[in-house]
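Researcher: I'd like a structural prediction for the single chain below. Treat it as a standalone chain; there are no partners to consider.
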Amino acid sequence: MNAPASLTYVYAVVPDTGRVRTAVEDVRGVSDRAVSLLVAEQPAEAAEAAESPHRVAFVISRVAADEFDERTLKARFEDMEWLEDIARAHHEVVQTLSRAGTVLPLRLATLYQDERRAREALAAQHALFAERIALLRDRSEWGVKLYIGSQEASEDRAADRTRDADTRSPGKAYLRHRRAQHHAREDHYRNAQEAAQRIDALVSRFGTHRVRHPAQRGALAGPEENVLNDAYLVSDDLAGDFRTALAAVAGDLDGVRVEVTGPWAPYSFAMPPPPPEPPREDSTGDGPVR
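Model: Treating it as a single chain, here is the predicted structure.
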């Protein structure tokens, strides 16, 4: 059987409302293809409730099968330039629709062989999608990162503390300098722990949901050390106070910096984590196309 000429690419799940239907007009997605909504077949009485918050739709476009089949994708995910283009197009669709209402982003390159299979998947997970959209409604994602100053900065502070050391005893001066370096670094880690505890207190105060991400390393973190990399789901009417409170978290803590980014579409909260699956000896793995 010949492969289909195109596949159905799904960006997100959204409430099926008039406002969202208007927002999707003229939106272009991956490969500059037109974006549209795909709804699951429902009983007539449900179809009449077009503005029901429980009625959801897939945001889709068509993409060339020979560019997005399983074999091609495995190779192209190693092509960072291509991957960046796809990720940017995917993100732009999600961000555009987030300005029209709640959006539940799906992972990059969520693909179905055709619209029929996409509808079946939407119908099968309809209750879960509707529940998740209810959680995300009128909330946005905010990123919070906690950094400790670079080792070089600690050494500079240590040098300041030992600059007036007795130069007639270089060995003792060196030891004093090394102890000062060690104490400065220890102080920064204690301050980072204090800052993290203050951030935890804000979670309770603002009633947010949180997702822990791995701390960034290497070039992503820059010269500083990233020790906390969290995402928070914050009610839009509390976002200003939340950001102001975070800005004050480390104001009196030496060697520590808090970075706040957002608001973002709630990628970190799109779907609950899947339940763990026991390993299967006969498992061959599923491809990206359903």
